[in-house]
Design a protein that fits this description.
Oligomer: homodimer
Distance between the termini of chain A: 38 Å
CATH superfamily of the largest domain in chain A: Oxidoreductase, molybdopterin-binding domain
Strand order of the largest sheet of chain A: 1-5-4-3-2
Shape of chain A: globular
Strand content of chain A: 25-35%
Number of helices of chain A: 14
CATH class of the largest domain in chain A: Alpha Beta
Number of strands of chain A: 27
Largest sheet of chain A: 5 strands, mixed
CATH topology of the largest domain in chain A: Sulfite Oxidase, Chain A, domain 2
Structural class of chain A: alpha+beta
């Protein structure tokens, strides 16, 4: 963001349109060559800066992709921010603003203000020129730092130079201090800082999802915006004293592993896997009839690269012998997160998934190449690829092989699917199996519900994600612009944009989502588009058409076709003709 | 059938209604105690035979189930037919009829005639009294023998006694000979005899399905009515000279096995597995828009018990070593059935399915406890549980481990799914994966489309089957009587009715279907019911709501909700009141 500052005059002479076309291919490209000063005439600008601009854009296109993911690159980003970005000297002539005053400026109508290292900027005029589009508004009323950490391309000298010209004041000293975390005796007081882009569904325990329009920008979701689904306060775990207990292996002996032993005694295995909350898209069920649960949008799903020891290897070390253990056994997991009574989070998976050579179940200590973040289970979590998020137990304390499933509330009396006919008076949780593998899923991340598409654009680009549980690979996504009457096939993407696609996974081990995109001509007569997507996996399972027939009292497994309505705005000239 | 002969007079005094209620619980129960002669008054009958009738019915209910399956019991049946059933002596006074004349009598309006061992019977009057209901009409115009073989309870002396009283003539000598198989130089001339109940979609090659109302009578489908899906003429294989070739195992050596070696050198493994044609329910897609392919109804699916050697064991014997073979390899199968150019039927499955301990892939030489029938691949076929029928190659000649899928037409250019937008001008068969695991499926077998339900019955019983591919267990079937607005949960059945249910299969190995049933009150005001079913598997995949959005040019993978419309007939008295 903040990259096309001095180019705004170009909107009037059409060059920006050309830029936008090129930018579309690169997603949120920084075009950071506009170093001239305010007051230049557009013609002058075009002459003196046109070639440089093209040169710089070409360089960026040839690079490693426009958007560098926070999770993979934030070390570099932090470093860059420290070394390149110098605090802008306070100008005593500018007014002091409180955070409250800044927060009031969150729209183009009210003005769009942001803070950066204690200074306040009014970037209202810049919003329409931002190469990343409306995403700039996610930072409105708040600090830029976390967004620039996410989109590392901003950490360049000239971006700061541009920003400096929008400065309108200083943040009050008190609010600068307030930007640090506040600690208290609240059990949640030690919860980590979170990225401000996250849309919070519940603060305590913390449950939040990224804005949908950001989600599909990265094939690997940056850890900072990876959806968070905590059931309890985040435990503080000392990696030095941490022990992982393994119990109940028939014929084996209890095992206790330090973090170091887990890391060094077992081969490190890396898997890219999508996790999804069972309640993803619950808000659509709530529209049919109220359900119990967090009102998730479409982004309680994210994709990351996980590294750790294979659960299978650890169970073998604990004495697991296939011929001794019943096929119908389970592997239970206990978290170190607990409520006031000391009850810990718990869940279990079938033994055959845990010990399968092809199950890829990890005791992960890294996410996106770094130590697990606190919100994602530091120091060790289970990653059960293809399986509902709830079984991917974080802050893992204990593993128990048992003939029984976990006795925890979350295994026995939650995370199960029921008929639309079942209500809280009639529900028998014993009658349904615990959710393990999830069904085929997809959703539209762009455009957003209610967006406006210009008729002059002549076409519309639709983006989204698609994933299926159980290692079933997404093989096709169909997109409709007319509510499901006619369909077009979207382009699938299984790596970061611009990178060489990863080879197809072995059968049954497609753990990662696919992003997808379709650019299609605008239907000539339509004033409104009802955009719909539906995905197909390689077992040819398809999403159900509508929400009501799959409605269930807990609002889980919401995987009907996703629908987004957008308006087509006729051009003024055409409108006059009409 | 033909069991309540002399009870027809009772319809007028209401006893039959009582019988029907009891019979409903036992499915097609023979009530074979009516040995009195025509002309008895109903009152007399009730007095003299009532107690006996109750006694016999109780005995049958206490037996091993009312309907004995042909596939499991036809040896006994054949024997019974030979020893018990004596040819009925031709009465010279009765006329001679040709088969053509008999064939004209296939409805209650035209008269219902059947033949049995050369005699002709007019059973029109008996139809309404048949405990098995309308199923008796399946035999109309043809021979009784194959149906009695299927429903072995008919093979009792008193049934013959009843039948004899409906005799109206003799079948011509020529037609008696014609009932033997006709042989010719036609490549299909050596195809085996088939059960006349089958609904034929194509005669050459032979493709046929059982009537839906029969399908769900047996948890294990009798082999004779198991759906037949041949691509080519049935080959004549001499079991003595038969060899199974195994090739292409990296690091191994070619292997050639006799039938005897296959049976004796490898452990015999038994699996109950449902097979389904990719084109099952294609007729519903044809109603949306014409597709290419056989117009299957809802019964191109059946369930059987298969025994044979594990493919995994045979590959190990051929030198298979997991560490030597690429994970992405395939196992190709070649059939011994071929066209005039010598091209054989072929297909392949992913190697990981073939060698998985939990894949249960068989080289089967038995079906339902007996040698494979000719139509089902005698002497050896592949059974790939959870996988589309087309990969379960029959008359197996060769197994080839390869880095490539089978190059056969049926693997490369058929049995693939496409978007509704894809037509024969735009289709690129390379763009879609070969169908392997099938998606969740269910259908209603009773009542039939257009059936009439009496208001006085006060309730309606709906029956059907449900199955999912990939070893995913069906966990719920929802049934709606109002087109999908409200739902009720059906009762699932995973063994023959009246038998102890089989224990739950290990996770991922639920290869067999579940039958289901729901008896629900008739909605008070409804004059028509739109009955709908949808199933859910343990990955919580659900069937799509409607056919059009999953329509594809080959008409495969037709698994939308199944819908059946029935009429509610008001009672005469109530109608008068209205």
């Amino acid at each position: 963001m903040l990259l096309l500052r001095h180019c705004r005059c170009l909107t009037r002479v059409g060059l920006l349109k050309t830029q936008r076309v090129q930018l579309l291919q690169g997603v949120a490209l920084p075009v950071a060559v506009c170093s001239s000063h305010r007051g230049h005439k557009s013609g002058q600008y075009q002459r003196s800066h046109g070639p440089n601009w093209r040169h710089a854009l070409a360089g960026l296109l040839a690079g490693t992709g426009a958007v560098l993911a926070y999770g993979l690159h934030h070390s570099q980003t932090e470093q860059a921010a420290t070394t390149i970005v110098q605090p802008i000297a306070p100008a005593s002539s500018l007014p002091i603003y409180t955070q409250d005053e800044v927060t009031k400026h969150r729209s183009v109508e009210e003005g769009v203000w942001v803070t950066y290292k204690g200074s306040v900027y009014d970037i209202t005029e810049f919003v329409s020129m931002h190469p990343g589009g409306d995403k700039i508004l996610l930072a409105a009323g708040g600090a830029l730092e976390p967004f620039w950490a996410l989109y590392a391309v901003h950490s360049q000298d000239h971006v700061l130079e541009i920003l400096s010209e929008y400065k309108v004041g200083e943040l009050s000293a008190e609010d600068r201090r307030m930007q640090q975390s506040v600690k208290s005796t609240d059990p949640y007081s030690t919860d980590p800082e979170r990225h401000p882009a996250l849309r919070i569904n519940s603060l305590k325990p913390f449950n939040a999802e990224p804005p949908a329009e950001i989600l599909s920008d990265n094939y690997i979701t940056p850890s900072a915006i990876f959806f968070k689904r905590n059931h309890l306060p985040v435990p503080q775990v000392d990696p030095k004293s941490y022990r992982l207990q393994v119990e109940g292996v028939p014929g084996g002996a209890p095992l206790s592993l330090s973090l170091e032993e887990l890391k060094t005694c077992f081969p490190k295995h890396t898997v890219t896997a999508t996790l999804q909350c069972a309640g993803n898209r619950r808000s659509e069920m709530n529209k049919v009839k109220q359900v119990k649960g967090l009102n998730w949008g479409i982004a309680a799903i994210s994709n990351a690269t996980w590294s750790g020891a294979r659960l299978k290897d650890v169970l073998l070390a604990a004495g697991y012998m296939p011929e001794v253990v019943r096929q119908t056994s389970h592997v239970q997991f206990e978290g170190l997160d607990s409520d006031v009574t000391g009850t810990t989070y718990g869940a279990s998976i079938p033994l055959n998934k845990a010990v399968s050579e092809e199950g890829d179940v990890l005791l992960a200590y890294q996410m996106n190449g770094e130590d697990l973040p606190a919100d994602h289970g530091y120091p060790v979590r289970v990653v059960v690829p293809g399986t509902v998020g709830a079984r991917n137990v974080k802050w893992l304390g204990k593993i128990i092989v048992s003939e029984e499933e976990s006795s925890s509330h979350w295994q026995q009396n939650d995370y199960k699917g029921f008929s639309p006919a079942t209500d809280w008076d009639t529900v028998d949780f014993k009658s349904a199996p615990a959710i393990q593998e999830l069904p085929i899923q997809s959703a539209i991340t762009q455009p957003a519900e209610g967006a406006v598409v210009e008729r002059s654009a002549e076409e519309v680009t639709v983006k989204g994600y698609a994933w299926s549980g159980g290692g079933r690979e997404v093989v096709r996504v169909d997109v409709s612009l007319d509510g499901g009457r006619t369909w077009q096939v979207a382009q699938l993407q299984s790596s970061e944009k611009g990178q060489v696609p990863a080879p197809s996974p072995p059968p049954g081990r497609a753990w990662a989502w696919k992003l997808w995109e379709l650019t299609a001509p605008l239907p000539p007569a339509a004033q409104e588009l009802e955009i719909v997507c539906k995905a197909v996996d390689n077992s040819y399972n398809m999403q159900p058409d509508s929400v009501a027939p799959i409605w269930n009292l807990r609002g889980v497994l919401s995987n009907a076709w996703h629908r987004v309505k957008v308006t087509v705005k006729e051009d003024e000239e055409e409108q006059k003709l009409l």
